[in-house]
Design brief:
Shape: elongated
Number of helices: 19
Helix content: 40-55%
Distance between the termini: 68 Å
Structural class: alpha+beta
Length: about 550
């Protein structure tokens, strides 16, 4: 960095400081201008040289004009003013009015003796800039060579991170997932994040930009830089670098090199892992078709989890929601399963890109098998318009179910959980998962077969057909308006007390004869006897279903 102090210290220029401002400021360039207002042609950071041909005089009356001139330059970010003085120039000395105008503005003011050509000052700065650029280039090439050597190591990713941290002055470098979890780092020591923000929040700000985004923030704690990793499609992770100070050009060059090398590595790793995930997804499809032994063989090739054996107890989970939400849920399931070894196997890899038709391939990426693979033999027309759906096979244990619930709630999708079954009976759990999914809602995003079964037969009936049957059965009463609503209330209480007329009358606070009259009216409307156990059971289930509809 070329500073004003370095320029003033060069003896061969014989520059004479008059007003000393911040001499540590960086100088971007040296320009000459005799204009009263050169600011339209400046970018900030310049040293302005002039001879004062068009400048104000040195009388007190000229002080405001000097003040306006100097303030315009200070506002533009000019570093210093250099006035040429000499016998053959406009000024033999620096005017007192100019000196007074410069004081307190932060600008520096110096005199340029007549024997020092302005071109000489410009040439010196140009030489220093060229030398600095050569130094920066050499440092950048050295950084690139060091990082490239690191990339060829056995543990390439870890070695790149360690090398990058050392090159950047004891910085910290790591790779994290899109939810902010650190996968690998240069050191175990993790520096503090910017106040009030977590790493997941920083990464979330980049998610929409895909591979095109990057982020940098500076503060008293240092600088954080975040870059997505990958070559095409969605990012396969994010490089996070914490610097103890500001990020200069050499540092940004080293980071850019690390991003390129790590992107190639994670892309290659992702392609290999995607092949394994697709094989595992095929194994899940085989399980859902009842071909457990074939699934075991496929998982053996894919390096799948050992828990998927013939004696395993499993559950099938159906996910449904906006395509982006389903993809995000699958990514989190895959990432969590990979990190923790938890027994979760999606029936489709999270590879589809936004806007892609379901079940079609993207250019440069494998086909998304979401609906097409996991819905084999099912009517996809039942799926709500604009939503995707897929299956996940999990082992029957409570911690795995809890993790799945967290992922569902975090990504805004809905899920139906089938009952526990042996591996060979997974198709039955799959059917139960579909039925449970139909009852899931935004208010209750996860429905399970176990919870529905705990509610009795009403909880297990298909929602739409069950409610239609209930409305048809109760229509002779519901169609009577206010009287029908009162009769339905009496019927619900009567059935709730298992046909005990005395308890029903007491609960309703009516005379026994009044209750008997209402019950006869109900029997006449329904065309059956309330002593018939089948009718009683049907009516109780119908009332439960109608009640569920009212609550929905």
């Amino acid at each position: 960095m070329i500073t004003l102090g370095r320029i003033l210290a060069l003896e061969r220029l014989s520059l004479e400081p008059v007003v000393r401002g911040d001499e540590g400021r960086a100088v971007s360039w040296v320009v000459t201008s005799e204009l009263r207002d050169p600011t339209p042609y400046l970018n900030g950071g310049e040293v302005v040289l002039f001879t004062g041909v068009n400048s104000p005089g040195d009388d007190p009356a000229d002080a405001p004009a000097w003040g306006e001139y100097v303030q315009r330059l200070a506002d533009r970010g000019v570093v210093a003013l250099g006035l040429g003085i000499g016998e053959r120039l406009s000024w033999q000395r620096v005017p007192a009015a100019l000196v007074a105008a410069v004081r307190g503005t932060g600008l520096s003011l110096f005199a340029v003796p007549e024997q020092t050509p302005f071109l000489g000052v410009i040439q010196v700065v140009a030489e220093h800039r060229a030398a600095e650029e050569r130094t920066e280039l050499e440092a950048t090439l050295a950084h690139q060579r060091a990082l490239t050597r690191a990339a060829t190591a056995v543990e390439g990713t870890a070695e790149i991170l360690r090398t990058l941290g050392g090159l950047l002055g004891d910085a910290w470098a790591g790779i994290c997932t899109d939810d902010g979890e650190i996968l690998e780092a240069s050191t175990r020591r993790r520096p503090p994040l910017p106040a009030g923000r977590g790493l997941g929040e920083l990464v979330d700000r980049l998610r929409r930009a895909g591979l095109r985004g990057s982020l940098g923030e500076s503060g008293p704690w240092g600088t954080v830089v975040v870059h997505p990793l990958g070559v095409h499609g969605s990012p396969h992770g994010y490089l996070v670098v914490f610097l103890p100070g500001p990020a200069d050009r050499q540092y940004t060059g080293a980071i850019a090199t690390a991003v390129a090398l790590l992107s190639l590595h994670v892309e290659r790793t992702a392609e290999q892992e995607l092949s394994r995930r697709r094989l595992r997804a095929s194994a899940v499809d085989l399980v859902l078709e009842g071909q457990g032994r074939a699934a075991e063989a496929v998982l053996g090739v894919a390096g799948g989890p050992g828990w998927l054996r013939s004696d395993a107890r499993v559950r099938v989970v159906r996910l449904r929601g906006e395509p982006a939400g389903v993809r995000q849920a699958l990514r989190r399931i895959e990432a969590h399963a990979g990190r923790s070894g938890r027994p979760l196997l999606p029936a489709s890899p999270a590879t589809a890109e936004p806007g892609a038709p379901r079940g079609t391939a993207q250019a440069g990426s494998p086909a998304d098998q979401g609906a097409a693979t996991s819905d084999r033999g099912a009517a996809t027309g039942d799926r709500p318009q604009g939503e995707d759906e897929t299956a996940v096979l999990i082992r029957d244990d409570e911690p795995t179910l809890a993790i799945l619930r967290e992922i569902v709630e975090a990504t805004g999708v809905r899920a139906g959980v089938g009952g526990a079954a042996a591996l060979g009976d997974a198709p039955a759990s799959h059917r139960e998962a579909r039925e449970a999914l139909e009852r899931a809602s935004a208010y209750r995003p996860v429905e399970s077969r176990d919870e529905l079964a705990a509610g009795g037969v009403a909880g297990l009936l298909p929602p739409d057909s069950g409610r239609a049957w209930a409305r048809e059965l109760l229509e002779p009463l519901a169609g009577r308006g206010a009287e029908g609503a009162r009769l339905l209330g009496t019927l619900r209480t009567f059935l709730g007390y298992n046909g005990n007329r005395r308890q029903t009358a007491a609960e309703l606070s009516v005379h026994r004869n009044t209750l008997l009259h209402q019950l006869r009216t109900i029997e006449e409307a329904l065309g059956g006897s309330l002593d018939d156990p089948q009718l009683r059971a049907d009516l109780w289930i119908a009332l439960r279903l109608v009640g569920d509809t009212a609550r929905d």
